Amino acid sequence: MELSYTPTLDPAAAGRRLDRLLVPGALRDPGLARSVDRLVAAFRGYADSYPLPLWAPGLVLTSEMRGLTEALFPMARVRAVFELLFRQGCRFPPLLSGSYLYSSPSWLDLLQRFRPRLGEADPAATLRALAGDPGLRTRFLFALLLPHHFGGAFDRYPGQSRWLAAWLRDNLGRLGGRLRALDSACGSGEGSYGLAELIGAAGFRGGECLVHGSTLEPIELFAAAHAFFPHDAQRERDYRARVAPLLTGGDAVTMKFHLEEVGKVGSERDYHLILCNGLLGGPLLHQPAELDHAIGALAARLLPGGVLLAADRFHAGWRQLVPAEQLRALMRAHGLVPLEVPEGAGGAKKRENR
């Protein structure tokens, strides 16, 4: 699906756009209802035969609990009904593969990790509530795809930000106060707005500068463009307070968020600066062929003299599996000159000889 947003904090505009993403009203599909009923019977069978305490908030999980739960009440069965619900509740195919529905080794693990906490161990109770209440369904979907631990935070890469601030000041004259930048794999958008802040602070003419944020996930895209986090009121308040000056100033940097895969050579090219933080070499993009393709596509979108930066802070040791040296080697293979940057890897496209 093609999707792009000019960011706004106007609640009426956000509401109209959200209605084009999510199905309003209750979901009354008979097939969904039958699937939930079958899950009720499966959970009762599990509860009747499970010899250990059933889940409740605060329960300390053990390997025995996980193993027995997965044997008696497989996560795949639960996952299938949640997927059915969200296929019916969304006007787009939601990317659930990176969510707790897939990363949780058992239903107990999802119950333990999900925030806000689910009130009941029986997933059918949650599914029925979600089917009947579109507001609850929206909050659950955003919590599922934008959980607290996903690194959505401003100033996540301070070393890179300091390097960027100096690079922007040094190149202000060369670029004539104008700049085109892309935050590829922007997630929930904090890095895109942070980049706009740095551009303004460096003295660029805001109205003649453009920052694009792109992601593959429509819910992330919506959250970024509207500072919309219905599952986390404090995060939403803090986010809106931070970005409001960037969207209302008379000389504001032009911003746009659009749906796009990192490895696509998009119609928008000719960027002076591309960021691709928290993706290249991490759990979601690390196979050699796909890494090579993604870096090649990003490098192709740079103007001569332009810079590609990729910070690489990942969980579970991914930095060691795909070190920055490997990313720099791939950048070099695609015509970029490696840069010494304080976080992750960076490369500059050679300038044309005059």
Strands, helices and their partners?
Layout: E1 4-5, H1 11-19, H2 30-49, H3 63-72, H4 75-89, H5 100-103, H6 107-113, H7 123-132, H8 134-145, H9 158-171, E2 179-184, H10 190-201, E3 209-215, H11 218-226, H12 233-248, E4 254-259, E5 271-275, H13 288-300, E6 302-310, H14 318-321, H15 324-333, E7 336-339, E8 345-349
Parallel strand pairs: 2-3, 2-5, 3-4, 5-6
Antiparallel strand pairs: 1-4, 6-8, 7-8
Helix pairs in contact: 2-4, 2-7, 4-7, 7-8, 9-10, 13-15
Summarize this structure as a short list of keywords or feature phrases.
single chain, 354 residues, alpha/beta, Rossmann fold, 2 domains, eight-stranded mixed β-sheet, 47% helix, 12% strand, globular
Explain the overall architecture.
By secondary structure, the chain is of the alpha/beta class. It has two domains: 27-132, no CATH class; 158-349, Rossmann fold, CATH 3.40.50. Helices cover 47% and strands 12% of the residues. The chain has helices spanning 11-19, 30-49, 63-72, 75-89, 100-103, 107-113, 123-132, 134-145, 158-171, 190-201, 218-226, 233-248, 288-300, 318-321, 324-333, and strands spanning 4-5, 179-184, 209-215, 254-259, 271-275, 302-310, 336-339, 345-349. The chain has an eight-stranded mixed sheet, with helices on both faces. It is globular, with a radius of gyration of 22 Å.
Terminal residue distance: 42 Å
Rg value = 22 Å
The helix-strand sequence is EHHHHHHHHHEHEHHEEHEHHEE
Q: What is the assigned CATH homologous superfamily of the largest domain?
A: Vaccinia Virus protein VP39
Query: Into which percentage range does the β-strand content fall?
Result: 5-15%
How does the overall form come out from the CA principal axes?
globular
Low-confidence stretches: none
What CATH first level of the largest domain would be assigned? Answer: Alpha Beta
The profile of the biggest β sheet is: 8 strands, mixed
Number of domains: 2
